[in-house]
Design a protein that fits this description.
Number of domains: 2
Mean pLDDT: 96
Number of strands: 13
Order of helices and strands: EHEEHEHEHEEHEEEHEEHEHH
Oligomer: single chain
Largest sheet: 7 strands, parallel
CATH superfamily of the largest domain: NAD(P)-binding Rossmann-like Domain
Distance between the termini: 44 Å
Number of helices: 9
CATH class of the largest domain: Alpha Beta
Helix content: 25-40%
Strand order of the largest sheet: 3-2-1-4-5-6-11
Length: 311
């Protein structure tokens, strides 16, 4: 399967991964439609040449305008994260509602390919590196619970209704256009006060960080190369970076030397998995390996985001 020949919908296409994927596929010759309610992303992130539909995926009428029978594949990336909502019920119901709406509409109009952005949070606090067949899955956040419920819905539609699906369990994806995550958060704090930096937890939280350009390349490789009815792949790097190391990298790139003020505890917030590293052996077996490891992904992203954020 060659995505360059396809008519593609990207929901959440004004967000971090969605906007980069839309631009990548457009450059390769695909016909792109982006659907986004612009609650997180902005209109200028949608690449020129892509059709844009302002649409809320929780609204069935909006979904009907976005998902039409001329599409070849839907990349369903629209989602709300923990930082978007204080209300756990709303977070769970709206994320799973979006996914059900998209799948239901795809069945209605006969679109039979779906790619979905899940998360490492479905594993909870699992042994590392965590493979795709690890179980039982025990998420510790409502966000992770919603992603796991989304996966169940997609599995059902793949096996019972003929919608071939690719599910990507992400490590921490970083890069330009990102906001509301640790790297831009540190940049904004240090730009305001370069003498001190508050760090949630004890700074020893340690996770895998993957640059968005690598993430997009891996997504395309898997969708074009894996052809089971239901395909689940971890996306990440083989290495990890601690929160204190991120603070060091951001400080170096800004040329500042702050004192660190830790809030304490072994995690940044309720539901935070303090240590995460995914197995990417299955991805490697399909012929794709990251060329940028975790520390370098953080450093590259810090440089890109400093250019965007710091005046």
């Amino acid at each position: 399967m060659n995505l360059a020949d396809m008519r593609v919908l990207v929901t959440g296409g004004a967000g971090l991964v969605g906007s980069h994927l839309a631009a990548d596929l457009l450059d390769r010759g695909a016909t792109i439609r982006v659907a986004d309610d612009l609650s997180k992303g902005t209109r200028d992130r949608v690449p020129g040449g892509a059709e844009f539909v302002e649409a809320d995926m929780t609204d069935a009428d909006d979904v009907a305008r976005a998902v039409t029978d001329d599409l070849d594949i839907v990349f369903h990336f629209a989602a709300y994260t923990d930082t978007n909502y204080d209300d756990d019920r709303t977070l769970f119901e709206e994320n799973t509602g979006m996914t059900y709406n998209v799948l239901d509409r795809m069945r209605e109009v006969g679109v039979d390919r779906l790619a979905f952005t899940s998360s490492s949070t479905v594993y909870g606090e699992a042994p590392r590196p965590t493979p795709e067949d690890y179980g039982p899955l025990e998420p510790i956040s409502v966000y992770g619970s919603a992603k796991l419920a989304d996966e169940a819905l997609i599995s059902t539609h793949a096996h019972s209704y003929g919608i071939r699906s690719w599910v990507f369990r992400f490590a921490n994806i970083v890069g330009p256009r990102q906001r509301g995550n640790v790297i831009p958060d540190f940049i904004e704090k240090l730009d305001a006060d370069p003498t001190e930096l508050e760090i949630l937890g004890d700074g020893r939280q340690e996770k895998s960080y993957m640059h968005v350009s690598e993430c997009v390349d891996a997504i395309r490789h898997v969708v074009e190369g894996a052809d089971n009815a239901y395909n689940v792949y971890n996306l990440g790097t083989r290495t990890t970076t601690s929160v204190t190391d991120i603070a060091d990298i951001v400080s170096e790139e800004l040329g500042v030397d702050p004192e660190y003020a830790y809030t304490g505890g072994d995690r940044g917030w309720t539901g935070d998995v303090p240590k995460m590293r995914l197995s990417i052996g299955k991805l490697a077996d399909l012929g794709w390996e990251p060329s940028v490891e975790s520390d370098e992904a953080v450093r590259r992203s810090a440089r890109e985001l400093i250019d965007e954020i710091v005046e």
